[in-house]
Amino acid sequence: MANTREVTVGAPDDLGLREVLIDGISVGGVWSDKELRRLLSREGVADGDPVQWLGGDATVWPDRAWMRRTTGFFVAVGLLATSYSLFRIGIADSGSALTYGGRIAGLTILLVAVTVLIAAAAAVDFWETRRWRYSGVAVLLGVVIALFCGISVLLLQIGERFTASTVIGIALVVWSSIALLELVKSRAAKGLRIPKNIAIGVIVSTLLASANLAYAQIYVPYVTTPLIQTGAEFRESNMDKGSAKLYVTVHLFVRNAGQVPVYVLGSTYWIRGESAKSRPDENSRPEVIYDGEFVKPDGHVLNPGEEVAQDAVIEVKNPGHRKYEAITAQSEVYVIRKDRMKMTGNYENARLTGNTLRDSLKDGDPPNPQYKFRTAISNSSEILNVTRGPQCVTVWRLGGRAPTVIVDVSPPDKRFRFNPEEPPLDQTAIERYGLSQVRGSMAQTPYPELLEKAGAKGQGEAPTRPSTPTPPTPPPPAL
């Protein structure tokens, strides 16, 4: 009798697992009589030793192995799929997100992905041996994260197209809801014991740290608006020998005086002749003398503190026959925030002009455009790429009496249809990507004064850009 060991088989739990204790020490759980005999043999218990049964005798084995394993399989697969998606997004954002807050978010997503992966491993233990006391808690946490991810995807899809991400979000919400009900039914959280004061301290500290980080690194940079300045200035004027042409130099510039880098999607300037308005019966509508661009290359990145400037020489034919009172110059640029999107296509070589542009025009395109750009873009984070889908930016430039640039950001398969009654800027792109139209103040100079200055220069040649003066030769060293 000295070698007789005391064996106790506990009552079945919610899934039918019965805990086995030998001499008062838990040695595991069993699902069937066959597993019990195998466990006792492994622990060195003789066949004749007495067994005490709690909650049912040796005939009570409520476990349904095929149902239990099927449930565990689908929960584990769902958690693995969620973890894979989170890993893909987290790796992309932690290394290439456009903002510091986006990279912090990517690292956070990676940590969440690791948590979900641990939950998938815990699902195997929870629906098989339950050797780990907190396996049910880990699975419950993973399923709650999956439910939160699915709901977040659907919320981000509001106002977007129905894409594959929408299907994934719906499937994730349905699967995680069913899994959550099953875990609640199985009382998966019964092994969790956290003192109330510790839980409150952790929650409060986490909320305060998260709020501070979100405000300093996400909210403040997001609401900071770009400060772009552009303008035109009249410089020198000159007239050729025959007095048949007047040349006027106009200085054009665009400057980033803020803290946000931008892409310059398009630039335009125009020179107008203002007719004398002393006689109301005379047509005094301004005449466009010249219009053009002044920022190159296309899609130029304008960083904080950077300036792009150009001197343009404007030719006015038959200046003596022009009944202008003044000449005006004005510039305009179209910029989009670099911290909210990135050009992924070859924007510099995406310009269409001439016959190529005319052959590509379709019904609903702007009439008689001077050029067109179209290139792919990427959002500031991978989660936005997933929810919004592929996006392209299209830029049109129209000439005529009122030179205009039209910018549209939309999916590749969606065509922009020109409507002259609507604003030329895409309202959605204004909100999402900080697209803005910046018009400089109007520069004006009296036309007679230009003629007088040009004539005073002795009928010289057309003005050219000033060259950098050659530095004087240093004096020889003293003897």
Features:
alpha+beta, 3 domains, four-stranded mixed sheet, 10 helices
Layout of helices and strands, plus pairs?
Elements: E1 7-12, E2 18-22, E3 25-30, H1 33-42, E4 51-53, H2 65-96, H3 100-126, H4 135-156, H5 164-185, H6 196-223, E5 228-239, E6 245-256, E7 262-275, E8 287-292, E9 300-302, E10 307-317, E11 324-337, E12 341-343, H7 354-360, E13 369-379, H8 382-388, E14 391-398, E15 404-410, H9 427-433, E16 436-439, E17 443-446, H10 447-456
Parallel strand pairs: 1-4
Antiparallel strand pairs: 1-2, 2-3, 5-6, 6-10, 7-8, 7-9, 7-11, 11-16, 11-17, 12-13, 13-14, 14-15
Word description of this protein:
- The chain is of the alpha+beta class.
- The protein folds into 3 domains: 7-53; 65-192, no CATH class; 224-456.
- It has 10 helices and 17 strands.
- The strands form 4 sheets. Strands 7, 8, 9, 11, 16 and 17 form a 6-stranded antiparallel β-sheet that branches. A 4-stranded mixed β-sheet has the order 3-2-1-4, covered by helices on one side.
- Helix 2 (65-96) packs across helix 4 (135-156).
- The N and C termini lie far apart (120 Å).
- Mean pLDDT is 79; it is low at 458-462 and 464-479.
